[in-house]
Specification:
The complex is a heterodimer.
Chain A: H1 2-19, H2 23-43, E1 49-51, E2 55-57, H3 59-77, H4 90-109, H5 113-131, H6 138-169, H7 174-183, H8 192-207, H9 215-222, H10 225-250, H11 255-278, H12 283-303, H13 309-338, H14 349-352, H15 354-368, H16 374-387, H17 392-418, H18 430-448, H19 451-454
Antiparallel strand pairs in A: 1-2
Helix pairs in contact in A: 1-2, 1-4, 2-3, 2-4, 3-4, 3-10, 3-13, 4-5, 4-10, 5-6, 5-10, 6-8, 6-9, 8-10, 9-10, 9-12, 10-12, 10-13, 11-12, 11-17, 12-13, 12-16, 12-17, 13-15, 13-16, 13-18, 15-17, 15-18, 16-18
Chain B: H1 2-19, H2 25-46, E1 54-62, E2 67-73, H3 75-94, H4 103-122, H5 126-147, H6 152-180, H7 188-192, H8 198-215, H9 225-231, H10 234-259, H11 261-288, H12 292-316, H13 322-353, H14 364-367, H15 369-382, H16 389-404, H17 406-431, H18 447-465, H19 468-492
Antiparallel strand pairs in B: 1-2
Helix pairs in contact in B: 1-2, 1-4, 2-3, 2-4, 3-4, 3-10, 3-13, 3-19, 4-5, 4-10, 5-6, 5-10, 6-8, 6-9, 8-10, 8-11, 9-10, 9-12, 10-12, 10-13, 10-19, 11-12, 11-17, 12-13, 12-16, 12-17, 13-15, 13-16, 13-18, 13-19, 15-17, 15-18, 16-17, 16-18
Classes of the chains: A mainly alpha, B mainly alpha.
Keywords (chain A): Cell membrane, Membrane, NAD, Quinone, Translocase, Transmembrane, Transmembrane helix, Transport
Family (chain A): Belongs to the complex I subunit 2 family.
EC number (chain A): 7.1.1.-
Chain lengths: 457, 493
């Protein structure tokens, strides 16, 4: 509870600071607010408190809140020289990001489906605006509108699903729904099943899983890169936490029913994400499609529900988030210098900018899932989990997809190190250096000594 | 334990220092690699040649997943560890005449790869083995793709995806073994003790075998090899052919045979047929090569095919297979030394006349007598002349194959003898004959070139005349391994 209050208050303070033209104070204020929220998150560890029957800050919620807050913090550090060049209303953007974060905290800690909906909407509405902050840019407008329409559409599915489930169980409460499933395992109301499917569709829209992924590439490409970073890392993580909380928790007893459509979704997501990413010429678009494929790997954890499913998602999401932040940070730097986000603009980056290029290499290795990086441990845990149920063909399919992934991630490495380019020298602000170093360190620590995060939840 | 940890992580520490050493990277990396060699020799001297695992390090690593940092050295490991630490300084010395750009990164990657290789050769934990397996691949990919020749990006991409694809399926096999293991860990002894039925063993055999076969490479998984060897910088080729392919052979001996003996038993005839096809096929292609580097690459496929055939034949001979297996061990070392020598000589020639095309060369021997002699010794070692290091290994291997099947031995043996023809013909066309316009300015070897070639020649002759220490080093472990395998095999039947 303290976490949400802190974030919301920070958002308001930042908004007022903007009103009084205290531009220099915006970032420090935000950082202090987020660090306080992070402190509350850590302080509430193991408390498992239930707030008014609506939210439960169990360790699952806290761990994901932690990742979201740290991720947002890093993204805020990347705002150095970013928004100022685009608009005068920097404070509003800061506020919107903070509001989105508050919504996400609700999404990862809801106990009541009403809170899921409220959290999702707070987050989504903020993001609709953020996607369109470049008012005069056609792509940005398109992204915003597309995101809004698709988001509204998927919310419809979600709400309809919630309604049906309420009709069947008479409750929004996750524990009561689960109790209903356990008690009436022989006589579950027939309207419960379509409810589950509709909610699955709604959430798949939000996390960008195929075949509900069509909005992602356009929205990711059209939005300002920093907002894309936010959407494809922190927002996605929160979406998965919400997904997991519902399906591994409340709908857990019905696993046999929803696992079949889920397997289809996973296979489609992996295949479409990877194969389409292979043919992209634009780095940002490639990352958008690769984020679809990562959604597929994340959903892997739901195919076999085990005691470790939640923790596996945490590890994967952490590895993915920090690697992606590096990739996008480098993209922002390159785009500021060259004005383009195609692969060619990365050619020969390694010659003049060893630190940036090395960070990007680590990020790509992690996204591809090479040992000694966090991405490998994430993928390994996912495979291990599904292998535990001896679903060999599924794992083999995922491995083939991972192989496709190597191609397009290594395309970046090849461009950075092995191709000759325009020998650009990037201007790397200190805050960017900090973000790169922190993210690289986290990625490597997760890869070399993951024991610190493995038993968190 | 401390010695082993130092052995493994000294190159890694060296890699980090080298990366920041700037202009003195050459010197720093040489010192580190020589220090590693001294350390390896020290360990070898303190190694008691019995079947036990020594210098064992067994530390907790990722406890929740049953992963430990468990490494140790037995006779089989000792040999390949020696090979690795012997060749790395030679390879670094061999690069002295080159003016690579980004020297510091180049040497740092070589040393980083050394740690990966040593992890592979000492790991007693399957997960650690896998990590080492990939940790060796990443640096060599960068070495070959950054400092390589024409079309290096496409060729190395193929190489990388090929090898990592194979190893991912091996990872799947490892996870399966882990799940079958009631203790839920990756310990090699626990894996040895598993009782799997023949269907399970069958697919695990393939999951591992393909990964190893790609690395070696065995026909038909070899298609990446000639291009990669040709396009890589010489030091990359040396690392690939001298040490890295031993990862595959070592993997077969250490992991494949003892864990899934029934699987090997069921499929070993196919594996042998593939190996022998590889020998014949690679030799025939080697015959037609115009580029000396490609010729050596194909001859390497043939020689490795013989090692693989020898291993699978010895496996089927039960406890009588010790000789063949010993041959494989010795040949691993000899092949490593010889192939590095060959590639170095070709590199020296290339650096002087900018070509490795056999027909464009000739008459070098007159101008460079020292090169001619050392090259001749290396060629003779490669074609396994008695008195050189190649002889003892190939002799034992062929004997193993012969005891298993006369026909297989006849085909493999004749081809290998046949191999002498194309190697010697290459030597003849490159070194002897008339000097032409291209080679007229050829200068003899000097400085580090001389040093490296003399060391290699000395090793070829010493191990050829007196191979006993090597055989002695591995004998107990090899015997123990075969006993273990056969015990498991008979208990299943």
């Amino acid at each position: 509870m303290n976490i949400i209050i802190t974030i919301s208050i920070t958002a308001f303070i930042v908004l007022y600071a903007g009103l009084f033209k205290a531009k220099k104070a915006l970032l420090p204020l935000t950082v202090v607010g987020l660090l306080t929220a992070l402190g509350f998150t850590i302080g509430a560890w193991n408390s498992n408190a239930i707030h008014f029957g609506m939210m439960q800050t169990d360790n699952f919620a806290l761990a994901f809140s932690g990742i979201c807050i740290v991720g947002t913090l890093l993204i805020f550090l990347l705002t150095q020289n970013y928004f100022h060049a685009k608009s005068d209303n920097v404070a509003e953007y800061f506020t919107l990001i903070l509001f989105a974060l508050a919504g996400m905290i609700m999404m990862v800690s809801y106990k009541n489906m009403a809170m899921l909906f409220v959290g999702l909407e707070i987050m989504s509405v903020s993001l609709y605006i953020l996607a369109g902050i470049r008012k005069r840019d056609f792509a940005s407008n398109e992204a915003s509108l597309k995101y809004f329409l698709m988001g509204a559409f998927s919310t419809g599915f979600l709400l309809f699903g919630i309604t049906l489930i309420y009709g069947a169980t008479g409750s929004f409460d996750l524990d009561k729904i689960q109790a209903y499933l356990v008690d009436n395992s022989k006589a579950i109301s027939p309207i419960f099943y379509p409810g589950v499917i509709l909610m699955m569709i709604g959430l798949c829209f939000k996390v960008g899983a195929a075949p509900f992924h069509f909005w992602t590439p356009d929205v990711y490409e059209g939005s300002p890169t920093l907002i894309t970073t936010f959407m494809s890392t922190v927002v996605k993580t929160a979406g998965f936490a919400a997904f997991l909380r519902l399906f591994a928790g409340a709908f857990g007893p019905l696993h046999e029913f929803w696992v079949q459509p889920l397997i289809v979704i996973v296979c489609l997501t992996l295949f479409i994400g990877n194969v389409t990413a292979l043919f992209q010429k634009n780095f940002k678009r490639m990352l958008a499609y690769s984020s679809i494929s990562h959604a597929g790997y994340l959903l892997f954890s739901l195919i076999v529900l085990s005691a470790n499913s939640e923790n596996n998602v945490l590890v994967y999401a952490a590895a993915y988030t920090f690697a992606s932040i590096i990739a996008f940070a480098v993209l922002i730097l390159v785009k500021q210098k060259t004005g383009s986000d195609s692969f060619e603009s990365f050619n020969g980056l390694g010659k003049k900018n060893p630190l940036v290029a090395l960070s990007l290499t680590v990020a790509m290795l992690s996204l591809a899932g090479i040992p000694l990086t966090g991405g490998f441990i994430g993928k390994y845990l996912m495979f291990l989990n599904v292998m535990g149920d001896y679903q060999m063909l599924l794992v083999a399919f995922a491995i083939l997809n991972a192989l496709v992934g190597f191609y397009y991630y290594f395309k970046v490495i090849v461009a950075v190190w092995f191709k000759d380019g325009a020998d650009i020298e990037l201007v790397t602000p200190t805050q960017y250096k900090l973000v790169l170093l922190v993210s690289v360190a986290i990625t490597l620590i997760l890869g070399i000594y993951p024991a610190i995060i493995l038993n968190l939840i | 334990m401390e010695q082993l940890l130092l052995l493994i992580f000294l190159p890694l520490a060296g890699a980090i220092i080298t990366a920041f050493a700037g202009k003195s990277a050459k010197m720093v990396s040489t010192i580190i690699s020589v220090a590693s060699l001294v350390l390896a020799l020290f360990i070898a001297c303190n190694f008691i040649p019995n079947a036990s695992t020594q210098f064992e390090a067994n530390l907790p690593w990722i406890a929740d997943l049953g992963i430990r940092f468990h490494a140790g050295i037995d006779g089989i490991s000792m040999l390949v560890v020696l090979l690795t630490n012997l060749l790395i300084p030679i390879i670094i010395l061999s690069s002295y005449k080159h003016d690579y750009k980004n020297l510091a990164a180049f040497y740092a990657l070589i040393l980083f790869m050394q740690t990966g290789l040593l992890l592979v050769f000492t790991a007693m934990d399957a997960f650690l083995f896998y990590i080492g397996w990939e940790a060796a691949l990443i640096p060599i990919y960068f070495i070959c793709a950054f400092w390589g020749g024409k079309d290096r990006i496409r060729i190395n991409m193929k190489f990388f995806v090929y090898t990592i694809g194979g190893s991912l399926f091996m990872l799947m096999g490892i996870i399966y073994l882990y799940l079958q293991n009631p203790a839920h860990n990756f310990d090699i002894q626990a894996f040895y003790a598993l009782n799997l039925d023949s269907a399970q063993q069958g697919w695990i055999f393939w999951a591992f075998f393909i990964a190893f076969a790609i690395k070696m490479p065995i026909f038909p998984f070899h298609t990446w090899q000639p291009d990669t060897y040709t396009a890589a910088p010489t030091q990359g080729t040396m690392l690939l052919s001298g040490i890295m392919l031993k990862m595959g052979i070592y993997g077969v001996i250490r992991w494949l045979l003892p864990i899934v003996p029934t699987g090997v038993h069921d499929w070993s005839s196919l594996a042998m047929i593939l190996s022998i096809i590889g020998i014949v096929y690679a030799s025939l292609i080697a015959f037609t090569q115009k580029d000396a580097k490609r010729l050596v690459a194909y001859s390497s496929i043939a020689h490795v095919g013989l090692i693989a055939a020898g291993i699978f034949a010895s496996f089927n001979l039960g406890n009588n297979g010790v000789q063949g297996m010993q041959g494989a061990m010795v040949q691993m070392l000899s092949h490593g030394i010889n192939v590095v020598g060959l590639f170095f000589v070709l590199d020296i020639i290339f650096s002087r006349v900018k070509t490795n095309k056999i027909e464009e060369l000739g008459g070098i021997a007159k101008l460079a007598p020292q090169l001619a002699i050392t090259f001749l010794i290396i060629v003779l070692g490669t074609v396994a002349l008695p008195g050189t290091n190649g002889f003892i290994g190939e002799f034992l291997l062929l004997m193993g194959v012969y005891n298993y099947s006369i026909w297989a031995a006849a085909i493999a043996g004749l081809t290998i003898i046949f191999g002498a023809v194309y190697m010697l013909r290459m030597y003849q066309n490159v070194m002897l004959g008339k000097t032409n316009e291209l080679t007229i300015t050829f200068t003899d070897i000097q400085g580090t070139e001389k040093l490296v070639l003399y060391i290699i020649c000395a090793l070829i002759i010493i191990f050829g005349v007196y191979p006993k220490p090597l055989l002695h080093l591995t004998e107990a472990s090899v015997q123990h391994l075969l006993e273990q395998v056969n015990q498991k095999l008979t208990s299943v039947k």
